[in-house]
Amino acid sequence: MNKNKRSILVIVSLIMLMGMFGNIFITYGVDKQTEITTTEYIATISDVEIIDTVRYPYIKIYTNEYANSWVIPSLIVENVKITEKMKKGNQIAVRVENKNVQFINQTNFVEIVSLYQNNEVIFSLEDYNKFKGIGMVGARLGMICCGVICVCIIISYYSTLKKSKSKKQNKAG
Questions:
Q1: Which of 43, 44, 118, 171 has the most CB atoms within 10 Å of its CB?
Q2: What was the pLDDT predicted at 172?
Q3: 137 neighbors 121 (Cβ within 8 angstroms)
Q4: Nearest Cα to 104, choosing from 27, 49, 39, 51?
């Protein structure tokens, strides 16, 4: 491989490596929600809709108090029995990540991180964190593998560069 192609490969690897570090930083707190990083809302159910996509089913809860729907993520839906418990007119308490509070009544839906109905836990923050963490395993492993490959490419390039410089110095000397 000529020098220009190797240089381009290293630059692309560096950009990908920076992107992966950014992605790891952004996704770090996804499965670490607490009462401090979330806000609780109380509402009355007006309707419950099960969206049964081929791969990722999820549930939308509509309430009397808010224009948007509350969405239960697919990882929770797959692992927790929810639908039988959700009835029109029941009062619920949901938690939303603080970063999403600004979108309440501004978007079609907001993902919830815990759900309580009549003081009964439907799914807790601990459940959310557990299932979200399981869902992130593949993405995190993929980022680590790509990062290792990028580092290997960069190290290989610099070791080749160092060898070629030492050969030039030996010929000159």
A1: 43
A2: 61
A3: no
A4: 39
